[in-house]
Design goal:
Strand order of the largest sheet: 4-5-7-2-1-8-9
Largest sheet: 7 strands, mixed
Strand content: 5-15%
Radius of gyration: 23 Å
Distance between the termini: 19 Å
Structural class: alpha/beta
Number of helices: 17
Helix content: 25-40%
Shape: globular
């Protein structure tokens, strides 16, 4: 979804498995290129950037079509803020209603990152600067030291207000019209905040939190350039235009969302929010900011700002900058109440049912116009039955109210949901369609023509 592919792959790139006349590591499950415990080595277990394009949860013109309507929204397994930003920014400029937005994610890193992003967008006075700090905190592996200082200041102000008996339990103001509230902060959340804002490279630093720039670079290189993952990288590059291969390579090398050629020497400290307390990369080795956005919209926005489509991360920089500025403006203009939680989704619904959050204005009688559940509908997470049992009673009683989610792992568990086990004729037809874009690429055709038509391993 997020990757840009050529209409026909460029034949100048020959994957290493074709040169070496062997099966690719992602097909040959017994390959020596797949060391033991590879998943844990190259997957930190967190998704901080999202893995599907953002959606407008309200879609006002196609549903209520009322620019003055108040909305109550729940993102009960939110991940990052891309759906929230897309939804708010998609409202028309004459929208005059109020927004009540519940954002929940059980991962403490995701929760704390979302809270910090809202603090940045709502509290940094200069909207352009706020957008730039938010962009790099969200997506860049390295950030300017001055940005970390600003983030640390905002977090300290928030925490002091949170623990002050005079203000504890009261919403934190985000500009003149919006506010942010959270019912509690556990020790793990406080550690995350200190981790995000600590600088172990400072001469007088005595903290064990935060990640030094050299350690961050070494860990990022380990994950992005591991020899055992070369076949996976070649598979990705094979479907890209040559110019996009350059852009992808540059991002995988530097980890900074900027136009190619832009100055980056001042990005002189690690973005510790992308690394664990122990300094390990928190995501997969193929995690990419582009996966969370519609690529056509990214390129269109980039072109509007003078970027070339070939500089895909430059386009992404201008796309994110524009949308983050819009979000900062709307936080300061519209009355938006953000309520942040960090609990398991079904436990949150039970807490609401038992009136545990009445001081935040959430009661058992609360009803939401939209409830976004991400992919916890998958049986490997919560499952459809438990999601509907837990959340359907909180859905508003109008024809546009909806629970929105998707099944990311459906093909893994659905009988006959995968190509594995299909007849030889069906398998041959599937392979013809897969190979059609590579017609004329002798190396790739030869690789796949030698495979058994039991395509289970291909789809694994």
């Amino acid at each position: 979804m997020g990757f840009v592919s050529a209409s026909r792959p460029n034949t100048n790139l020959t994957p290493s498995w074709a040169i070496e006349d062997r099966l690719p590591g992602f097909i040959d499950m017994n390959s020596e290129s797949k060391p033991p415990q590879e998943r844990s080595l190259f997957d930190g277990g967190s998704t901080l950037w999202g893995n599907m394009p953002a959606v407008d949860l309200i879609n006002l013109s196609g549903n209520e079509a009322d620019a003055g309507k108040d909305f109550s929204l729940a993102f009960v397994a939110s991940g990052d803020l891309r759906h929230v930003m897309k939804t708010i920014n998609s409202l028309p400029y004459n929208y005059s209603g109020k927004l009540d937005i519940l954002i929940n994610d059980g991962n403490p890193f995701v929760f704390c990152r979302n809270l910090v992003l809202l603090l940045i967008l709502g509290c940094v006075p200069d909207e352009k600067l706020a957008a730039d700090i938010a962009l790099h905190f969200w997506y860049s592996v390295f950030i300017p030291a001055g940005y970390r200082l600003r983030i640390g200041y905002l977090v300290n102000v928030f925490l002091k207000r949170f623990i002050d008996p005079a203000t504890r339990g009261k919403p934190f103001p985000l500009g003149a019209t919006s506010e942010l509230a959270t019912p509690c902060l556990g020790e793990e959340h406080r550690i995350c905040f200190r981790h995000f804002t600590s600088d172990p490279d400072m001469p007088d630093s005595s903290t064990s939190l935060g990640v030094g720039i050299d350690d961050a670079q070494a860990e990022y290189d380990r994950v992005r350039t591991a020899p055992s993952r070369k076949d996976y990288r070649d598979r990705m590059y094979a479907r890209l235009k040559p110019s996009h291969r350059v852009a992808f390579y540059e991002f995988r090398r530097h980890g900074i969302v900027l136009p190619i050629g832009a100055a980056n020497a001042h990005f002189n400290c690690a973005n510790s929010s992308l690394f664990s307390i122990e300094g390990r990369w928190l995501q997969t080795d193929f995690a990419d900011p582009l996966e969370g956005w519609n690529t056509e919209e990214v390129i269109q926005m980039g072109k509007a700002h003078g970027a070339q489509a070939e500089d895909i991360y430059g386009c992404l920089y201008f796309f994110l900058s524009s949308h983050l500025r819009t979000l900062a403006q709307r936080i300061r203009k519209l009355p938006i109440s953000f309520k942040l939680f960090s609990v398991e989704a079904c436990a949150l619904s039970k807490g609401i049912e038992e009136n545990m959050f009445t001081e935040m204005g959430i009661t058992s009688n609360t009803r939401f116009d939209r409830i976004e559940v991400s992919n916890i509908l998958d049986i490997s997470y919560v499952g459809t039955r438990r999601v509907l049992t837990s959340w359907s009673s909180f859905l508003g009683q109008n024809k546009h109210a909806a629970i929105v989610g998707y099944y990311m792992n459906w093909s893994m568990v659905q009988k006959d949901g995968r190509a594995q086990g299909a007849s030889r004729a069906v398998s041959q037809e599937v392979m013809k369609r897969i190979l059609k874009p590579w017609k004329g690429d002798d190396a790739l055709e030869a690789t796949f023509s030698d495979l058994s038509f039991d395509v289970g391993n291909i789809c694994a």
